[in-house]
Structures are given as structure tokens and as C-alpha cells.
Amino acid sequence: MMIRRPPLHRWWSLLPAVIAAVLLGLLIVATERIVADELTRRSLGRVEQFATIYADQIARLLSQRASEMALLARTVDKVPERAGADPVRDELQRLKDSSTSIVWLGWVDPEGMVVAGSDRLLEGLSIATRPVYLNGRAGRWFGSLHPSVALKAALERKGQSMSYELADLALPVRRADGSLRGVLAMHIDGRVLEQIRHRVLGPVDDRRTMDLALVTPGLQTLVGRVPSFAADDWARRMPDGAHQPVVMRARDGVDYAATHSKVETGDPELAHDWSVVGHQDLRAALEPASEMERLLLVWGGLAALVLGGLGAWATRQLTRPYVQVFDAVAERLADPGRVRPAESLDAMLEQVRRLPASALAGSPSDRLLAQVLHDAGRIKVMLDLLPAPVYLVDNDYRLVYWNHSAAEVFGWRGEDVLGQPLAHFLKWTDPYEDKRQRMAMLESQEGPWAFEIHAQRRDGIDIWGEWRVSRLRDMDGSLVGMMAQVRDLTAEREARQRLTEQSETLTAIIQASSDAVISTDASGRIELFNPAAERIFQVAAADLMGQPLDRLLPPRFRPGHHQHLRGFADSSTSRRRMGAGRVVGLRADGAELELEASISQVTVRGRKVLTAILRDVTERVLAERRQAQYQLELSELTYQLMEQEKQTTRRLAQILHDRLGQTLTALRLSLDALGGTLGDGLPAAAAQRMAKLDALAQQAIHEVRQAMMELRPPLLEDNGLAAALETECHTRQAEAPSVPLHLRVQPGLETLRWPADVEHAVFMVAREALVNAIQHAQARQIEVRLDGDAQHIHLEVADDGVGMPLALSQGRPGHLGMVGMRERALAIGAALVVEPQAAGGTLVRLDWELLP
Asked: What is the pTM (predicted TM-score) of this model?
């Protein structure tokens, strides 16, 4: 009877092509899911980051302008009312020139009349009906952007650039009795907000449709552009105060990554309704994923075709022997009389090896039998070489097979144990001591069975193992024995024991920690609350187990807390600081806590566990705030002292010039006149005394002039910083002719002017550095370098002397020169560095930059 051979080789030849096509499809789907999700997540993160930075920089600008106004109000309050408008106008002009974001500053009397204004604009005009005056009478007030009104014509007449959008800032100045002395008003240039926006976004080519907008409630745009989001959808997904980025669809059907961030200045008197909306078109963000899909589709398709063709050819070649095997099996099954049972595998293998080669090349069934016997031999070799112990027993529990790994683990060789009862050499706890009971269990239960048992090696060493026991049956289904596979668990149990000990140690550390340790699941439910947390939050751990973590947060931080926690749990980050490294907690009595916080996550048995470590730094934060306040007050005091110093030195110089200098000059002229009147008739002693008096008068006049130069730098007010430095260098060179002194000024700076207080502070620092170099450094030469532009000043004073001791460079009692230099630099917002040079000597460097 002919048996029709199934065309399996034809189907197998198509298998590589099918596998390649399936893998390509899976790869494209995985790319779309994984890469697109990652790009979307990155887009959301960048949108949130850019919006937060923009909101923070606007808040910093407003806070800085408000602080400057408060400082200006204190300065104006110290100007006597009888002094007139000029001193106030000078202060207004100084502050206006210090920042490009200020369009106009004005001093308004109680009736609303502009008494003094920067650049003399609007002076004599009434703004009594303007909100900046009406609201400024009551207290510090900030007004949102509005078109320029009164300043428009004035700026155009001056030929200055005009800002079409202005923001108002005003505050009152009151007398000691509480009555209103006047109102300070400031107009902030709205274009600065657009400049900050472009600076945050960076170059246009790098934005990839990323955009920011400054808006009011209801998405009314002040700066930038906002997609056409539905107002109700925006209010639902972006409630007030929320800034978690989300994917939103505009009315035109385009999906955007969008976020919302409030502009919070931290000052309740600067109340406003500004916020920042960040958004990015997801089509641009996902463009790399689309490009990758196209490349995968083209090149992956070509690769699938090539692999499918090669696989089909190779499959046809490799399946030919199996077709012959199928023929041999079919012939053997068709003639059952030819099947003869073998006594043992080894005997059959030996018999096959003894057959001549011509016999093995006979019928397909003979070749199949030889192949099966060889495969059985290979299986035996494989069992012998398995890394885990394997043994076989018969129904009497006598060992019939024992592989090499069993000999290594239990210490018994195969020739010593084969044919012996298993219980004679393998000591282990057996719950079935009676053989009949064991056999009844094997007959009644299908198995296999797995259990852990403590056993003993030949050398007496205890081991733990996991036994997997299976029943063995013959062709008619009768039970002939069992096969056991053993996995050595000794090292694993020891590791588990060490892990338990480490867990107990860790628990003890957590319980004894002075920091709060709180663990939650991925949804934020509390699972661990150590004693330090109970002490800090003043609540028992039992009351919080299973409760949401946001119970420990003030109500204003709770709406977005769950989303932040879920976002961290879904990320690949294992540890990071929470917030900006500090968070606000809520104690059981309602008091708020300042906490340093970090959060980490681990996966335990497939479940995310989040752990937060919190340290109570409330007292430290209060101390830092007090210190910052002290520093601000010290800076204000320094500035006032410097202003007082300028006024005092100017007054002293005027007195020396107008009074003492004139008196000495008159005295010398009188002596000359007296000498001319007496002529040559004076006695020799009187003539000598007259000459001495004339020399003393000349010396006094010279000393007065020197004192005036020290008190009032020559040429500084009239010709600027470069001319004053040149005169100072000539003067110091005359005092120390043996030390060459060089002045290098960048071309173009000879006539450039900066704010008066900046020029005075830079000059005084340069003078002090020159005096130190000449008197203390033992320098062979000194070089002064000045460069910069209208927005920057860079000053260097370098010498090649012995250098300056560290204690002197930091300032110490009796050596206040360095302290004065630092305070002058600090007063104008400059950076001062005093450091040794590599080749010897000292370098004094000052850098100043005009703030926007």
C-alpha cells in the first residue's frame, strides 16, 4: 500500500517569509507605540519646563522692579520737601537708566500733578484720573498691560522708541504723620516680556513649533499665541493653579501638548491674573517617529523579501532528510512484524555500531532505527551532562540511573549506588515511610510533585534542595518507577537568610532614623510610616495606613499631587528630588512644615513601591529667610552710606575749594603784595621769614588741591570713567616714579558714559587697587585694563608683586580696603574677584552688567 507523503516541505519553505513579515509588523507597531509615547512624554516635559521658566522669569522681573520702587521710595522720603524736584528727578533718572525695561518713572504730588519725571517727560501734567495714581495712593499697586496713552506723544516728540504696551507699578510715600506726600509711578515696557519669551524659546529653528503665551483668564493673549482651544475644555482640563501638561485637541482638530503655569511673584501686593500657556504641535514632535516608520517599512520590507527567499531555499534543502524519515516511519508502521524490542539502550547502540556500513545504507526503516538509537544515546549523554542532579528509581526505590551532577552534589559515585535502595545513601525527610503508602499515592495522584527537603551529603554536610518527582510508565501504562530532578537551594537559602537579616537591619535603621520615611504604593496609599514621621507630622502611623499621601499636604497642593506621583511612578527614573528639593507639609495641628524631600521607586514582585525621605527644615528655612532679609537691609544700608559718602565728599571738596582754598590763595596774594610794598628795605631776617611764609602758603594750597583730588575724582563727572582713570594713573605715577604704570583702554570707550553711581564705584575700586599695589605689593610694574560696552564694564588691575595674603584679600580688622571694594561692587550689582596670578602678583577684576 502506497502512503501519500504530505507536502510539509512546501509549507515549511514559506515559514521564514511569514516570520519575517510578522516580525516587521510587530516592529512597526512597537516603534509607533514606544517611540511615539516617548516623544509625546518628552514634548509634555519640555512644554512644562519652558512654561515654568517663562513664568519664573516674568515673576523675577516684576519682583525686582517692585523692590527697586520700594528702595526708591525710601530714598525719596529722605529728600527734604524744600529741596525741590531736582534731587528726586536725579534719583528717578538713575533708576530709569539702570534698566532697559523701565519706560518712565514719575513723582506725583498729592493732587495728581507730575512734579518730576525721568527724561523730564510729563512734568507739569496731571494724571489724577489715571489708575496708576488712583490706586497708588492707597498702597503698592500693579496694573496689567495696557496701551500707552500720555507717554505716546511725549516719546514721539523726544524721538525715542515707543512701547505700545505698558504695565504700571505705583506706591505711596507718606510723611511721618501718615499724610500723603506723593506717589511714585513706573511704566514697564511690555516689549521686555516678548524679549524674555524669545530668549526662553531659543532659536526659531530649534523650537519645533514650541511656543509660549502670556495670557489672562479666559485665554486672552497678552504676549505670544494660543491655539484655538475650547474654553470649556480648557477650564475642565486646566483648572486654576494646575500646571500638569496634557494633550489637548484644538478646534481645528490638531493635537497639542499644552500646560498652564501661574506667574507667582510671592508678593500678595503684586496681585495680577497673568499666567503662561506653553504648547507644541504634536505633529512636529512626532515627526521623528513617522520618519522611522517609513524607513522601517521600506528597508524592513526589502529585508523580509530577501530573508523569505533565502529561507525558502534553505528550508527545502534542510527538510529533504526529514522527508526520508517520514517514509521510513510509514514503512515500519505498515509492517508491525518487523518491530523487535531491544533489551537495553547500550546493547542496541553497540549492535548498531557493529553493523556494516552497507546494512546502515539499506531501507529507510533501518536507517531510521539507527538514527533513533543514536538519538537515544545522545539523550543519555545530555542527561549525564545536565547541571542539575537527575536520578531514576524503580518501584522498589532501587536506583537505576544516577547522572554526574547527582554524584557531585550528593558525593556518591554512580557505580556505588546503582541497584541500591535510595534510602541507604540519601538521608532525607520522607513523609511516606511505607512503600505501599508511597505506591498508593503514585497510583492515585497524577503528579508531578514538587517539594523542598533537607538532605545530607555523603560527607555529612547538610543541603537543601527542591525535588521535582514524576511517574514513569511503560508502554501498557504500568508504573515502572520515578524520575527525580533536584535543584540545589543551599546557596539560595543562605542568600535568603542574609536578605532576611538585611531586611531586619534596614527596618531597625528606618525605625531609628531621625528623618521621616514614608512608603506608598503606585496610587499613593501609605504603607510605611516610621516613628520620625509620627514625630514630625504629630500623627500616629496606625491612623494613616492605607490613607492617601496627600493628607500630609496643604489643601492648595493636593489637586496636582496624584498626577505628579503617577508621572514619577510611570517614569524610568529610580530616584530624584521632590519639587525643587523642598516641599510643604501639613502637621496634624494645621501648621505648615518646610521639608527637604527626595523620592525613589523600586519594583517588588512586579509592584511599584514609592519611598519618600523627608527632613524637617522649618527652623532652618526661617533662619535663611531672616538672613536674606538682613542681607537686603545691609545692601540698602551700604547703598545709602555710599550715597552719603558721595554727598559728604562732594561737600568737603566744595568747602576746601570755595573756602579754605580761596583763603589760602588770598593769604599768599597778601604776602606777595606785602613783599612788593616793603621792597628791598626789609631786614634779612624778615625777608627770610616772608619767604618761608610764602613757601608754607604754596604747600598748603598744594595739599588742599591734593585733598580735593582724593575726595572728588577729577574729570569723572565731566569727562567720564576713562578720563578719570588716566588722570589717576598719572597722579599715582608721580608718587611712585620707579614703578611703571600702564593704562590700556579699549578703543571707543574714551567718551562712553555709564550711570554716575556705577562710574564712581568702579573708579573708587580702581583707586584702592592701585594704592594697594603701590604701597604693599612691592610691584615692578602695574597694568590697568578697561574694556566693555554700553551694557558692560570689565576692569582689571594687575601687578607682578609679592601677592596679597589670603586674610588681607578677605578683609580683616584694621584692613578695610578690600571690604570697601567688595561693598562698592555689591552696591552696583557687580562681581569682584581678587586672586593671585600664575606668574606672581595679584589680579583685581571687576565685572558689571546692566540689568534689563
From this structure: 0.39
